[in-house]
Design brief:
It is built from 2 helices and 2 strands, in the order ββαα. It is an alpha+beta fold. It has one domain. A two-stranded antiparallel sheet has the order 1-2. β1 and β2 form a beta hairpin.
Protein backbone atom coordinates (compact mmCIF):
# COMPACT_ATOMS: atom_id res chain seq x y z
CA UNK A 1 0.00 0.00 0.00
CA UNK A 2 1.02 3.58 -0.60
CA UNK A 3 2.38 5.59 2.34
CA UNK A 4 -0.66 7.93 2.37
CA UNK A 5 -3.48 5.56 1.60
CA UNK A 6 -6.91 4.79 2.95
CA UNK A 7 -8.82 2.13 1.06
CA UNK A 8 -12.56 1.74 1.52
CA UNK A 9 -14.27 -1.39 0.23
CA UNK A 10 -18.04 -1.45 -0.23
CA UNK A 11 -19.99 -4.65 0.35
CA UNK A 12 -23.65 -5.57 0.41
CA UNK A 13 -25.16 -7.79 3.09
CA UNK A 14 -28.62 -9.21 3.63
CA UNK A 15 -30.37 -9.13 7.00
CA UNK A 16 -31.25 -12.77 7.75
CA UNK A 17 -34.47 -11.85 9.56
CA UNK A 18 -35.89 -9.13 7.29
CA UNK A 19 -34.21 -9.80 3.96
CA UNK A 20 -33.27 -6.13 3.80
CA UNK A 21 -30.11 -5.34 1.84
CA UNK A 22 -27.64 -3.18 3.74
CA UNK A 23 -24.31 -1.61 2.81
CA UNK A 24 -21.17 -2.51 4.72
CA UNK A 25 -17.71 -1.02 4.43
CA UNK A 26 -14.21 -2.18 5.22
CA UNK A 27 -11.60 0.51 5.90
CA UNK A 28 -7.92 -0.29 5.35
CA UNK A 29 -5.63 2.29 6.93
CA UNK A 30 -1.97 2.73 6.05
CA UNK A 31 0.80 5.29 6.17
CA UNK A 32 0.22 8.73 7.66
CA UNK A 33 -3.48 8.13 8.32
CA UNK A 34 -2.66 5.06 10.43
CA UNK A 35 0.05 7.06 12.24
CA UNK A 36 -2.49 9.77 13.13
CA UNK A 37 -5.00 7.20 14.37
CA UNK A 38 -2.28 5.48 16.41
CA UNK A 39 -1.33 8.82 17.95
CA UNK A 40 -4.96 9.63 18.82
CA UNK A 41 -5.31 6.25 20.49
CA UNK A 42 -2.07 6.75 22.42
CA UNK A 43 -3.05 10.26 23.59
CA UNK A 44 -6.62 9.35 24.60
CA UNK A 45 -7.01 6.33 26.90
CA UNK A 46 -10.76 6.23 26.13
CA UNK A 47 -9.88 4.78 22.72
CA UNK A 48 -8.82 1.15 22.74
CA UNK A 49 -9.14 0.29 19.05
CA UNK A 50 -9.37 1.78 15.56
CA UNK A 51 -13.12 1.17 15.32
CA UNK A 52 -13.87 3.59 18.15
CA UNK A 53 -11.78 6.35 16.59
CA UNK A 54 -13.21 5.87 13.10
CA UNK A 55 -16.75 5.79 14.58
CA UNK A 56 -16.24 9.10 16.38
CA UNK A 57 -14.54 10.68 13.36
CA UNK A 58 -17.43 9.58 11.15
CA UNK A 59 -20.11 10.91 13.51
CA UNK A 60 -18.25 14.18 14.08
CA UNK A 61 -17.76 14.61 10.34
CA UNK A 62 -21.43 13.87 9.55
CA UNK A 63 -22.57 16.27 12.27
CA UNK A 64 -20.30 18.97 10.83
CA UNK A 65 -21.74 18.39 7.35
CA UNK A 66 -25.31 18.64 8.72
CA UNK A 67 -24.47 21.98 10.37
CA UNK A 68 -23.02 23.24 7.08
CA UNK A 69 -26.14 22.16 5.15
CA UNK A 70 -28.37 24.10 7.55
CA UNK A 71 -26.60 27.40 6.84
Amino acid sequence: MNNNTITILNEEFENDKTGEKVQGITIIMDGKFKEVVDLLMKKNPNYTNYTEIVRDALFNGINSMIVECKK
